[in-house]
């Protein structure tokens, strides 16, 4: 095989890598592990940019063409967004460089597995690394450009103050007053799943009164009163009751946890933190939840769709106050179908989600135990 043919094979390997979700998962995980400040951002936010950068970095092998402007624009956008989100440039570069190294390692391993000669592999990957280095420089340029623009605005000053307030570094009363926050008045803390700066500006405008900014990559705000009903549309948000400012940092952490819980169940719109209190408390003990799920539902196979359907129906039954008619309406099936599935679950596992007999564990605790076990079991991936 000629050198040109080997180069074509390497190009094919790299193009396959760019489309491989498993490669993207590894690169994202490596970047997040290398920089805790990056890992605090929503994982989807990391994936959004790294997917574009990875594809742009490996696209060199489409006829060995020079990179187009879209790759550079994506790199600059990554830098600008991280500046707006308050991620330090050193942390950003640690993440980018770690992800870059992991991508090269995967390419080398795949090239060797395909029998590509070392010389061809090294020469080819040197070109790839050069191109990715150019993208990295665009990340730095985008970051510093955005940082300079932000430093000229009062908005950035308010965002920095907001971060201090919700992360436990309370600003002075004078600073709070200048930012429009009453130092002595209770505030609602609102956390959203919106991380894109442009979308965050739109949502901020819809929510109305308050001081907003990106904290750990999520649009967050301190509000003197709850937004009007419907404000924010379908954007997922979690908001606390009004509390003194000194209590905000602890509740902010709970809001982030609650947001993850709500996202896993595909919830949308605004949710009070207190409405999610039970789920947040249970999420703090994942090992116990998994053990409970295995104990109650050990006879079920997580990879069996019918078994998952049985567990999902039982969970819906508990969520609907053990009402057959309400459960059937929620699942869009006949009540007899719900009854059949509950009977099959009891036959397979011995678990009955019906109300307990006299002398059983108190009803509330028994229901909580079953709900937690079913939810934890369903959270297992389908393999």
**What is the beta-strand fraction?**
5-15%
Instruction: Give the CATH topology of the largest domain.
Output: Globin-like
Mean pLDDT: 83
- Overall 3D geometry? flat
Given as residue ranges, the uncertain stretches (5+ residues, pLDDT < 50) are none
- In spatial order, strands of the major sheet run 2-3-1-4-5
Query: What is the first-to-last residue Cα distance?
Result: 40 Å
The helix/strand class is mainly alpha
Largest sheet: 5 strands, mixed
Structural account:
The chain has 17 helices and 5 strands. The protein is 64% helix and 6% strand. Strands 2-3-1-4-5 form a 5-stranded mixed sheet, sandwiched between helices. It is mainly alpha-helical. It has helices spanning 3-18, 21-34, 36-39, 43-58, 69-84, 89-113, 118-151, 154-166, 173-178, 197-207, 248-264, 277-283, 286-297, 305-319, 324-331, 335-349, 363-378; strands at residues 188-192, 211-215, 218-223, 237-239, 270-272. Strand 2 and strand 3 (218-223) form a beta hairpin. The mean pLDDT is 83. It folds into 3 domains: 3-151, Globin-like, CATH 1.10.490; 155-283, no CATH class; 286-378.
How are the elements arranged and paired?
Blueprint lengths: L2 H16 L2 H14 L1 H4 L3 H16 L10 H16 L4 H25 L4 H34 L2 H13 L6 H6 L9 E5 L4 H11 L3 E5 L2 E6 L13 E3 L8 H17 L5 E3 L4 H7 L2 H12 L7 H15 L4 H8 L3 H15 L13 H16 L5
Helix pairs in contact: 1-4, 2-4, 2-6, 4-5, 4-7, 5-7, 6-7, 11-12, 13-17, 14-15, 14-16, 14-17, 15-16
């Amino acid at each position: 095989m000629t050198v040109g043919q080997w180069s074509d094979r390497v190009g094919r390997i790299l193009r396959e890598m760019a489309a491989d979700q498993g490669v993207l998962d590894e690169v994202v995980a490596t970047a997040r592990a290398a920089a805790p400040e990056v890992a605090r951002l929503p994982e989807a936010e990391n994936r959004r940019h790294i997917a574009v950068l990875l594809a742009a970095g490996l696209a060199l092998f489409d006829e060995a063409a020079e990179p187009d402007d879209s790759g550079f624009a994506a790199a600059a956008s990554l830098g600008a967004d991280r500046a707006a989100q308050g991620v330090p440039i050193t942390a950003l570069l640690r993440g980018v460089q770690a992800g870059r190294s992991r991508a090269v390692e995967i390419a080398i391993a795949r090239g060797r597995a395909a029998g590509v000669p070392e010389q061809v592999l090294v020469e080819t990957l040197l070109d790839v690394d050069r191109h990715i280095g150019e993208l990295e420089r665009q990340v730095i340029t985008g970051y510093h450009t955005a940082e300079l623009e932000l430093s000229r605005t009062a908005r950035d000053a308010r965002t920095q103050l907001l971060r201090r307030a919700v992360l436990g570094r309370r600003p002075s009363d004078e600073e709070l007053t200048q930012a429009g926050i009453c130092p002595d008045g209770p505030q609602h803390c609102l956390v959203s799943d919106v991380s894109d700066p442009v979308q965050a500006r739109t949502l901020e405008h819809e929510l109305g009164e308050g001081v907003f900014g990106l904290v750990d990559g999520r649009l967050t705000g301190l509000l003197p009163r709850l937004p009007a009903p419907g404000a924010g549309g379908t954007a997922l948000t979690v908001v606390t009751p009004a509390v003194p400012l000194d209590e905000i940092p602890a509740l902010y952490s709970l809001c982030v946890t609650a947001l993850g819980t709500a996202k896993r169940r595909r919830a949308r719109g605004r949710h009070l933190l207190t409405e999610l209190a039970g789920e947040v408390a249970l999420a703090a003990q994942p090992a116990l939840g998994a053990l409970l799920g295995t104990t109650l539902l050990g006879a079920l196979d997580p990879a069996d769709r019918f078994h998952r359907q049985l567990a999902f129906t039982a969970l819906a039954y508990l969520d609907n106050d053990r009402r057959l008619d309400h459960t059937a309406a929620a699942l869009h099936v006949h009540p007899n179908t719900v009854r059949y599935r509950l009977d099959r679950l009891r036959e397979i596992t011995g678990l009955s989600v019906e109300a307990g007999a006299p002398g059983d564990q108190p009803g509330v605790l028994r229901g909580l135990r079953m709900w937690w076990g079913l939810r934890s079991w369903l959270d297992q991936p389908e393999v």
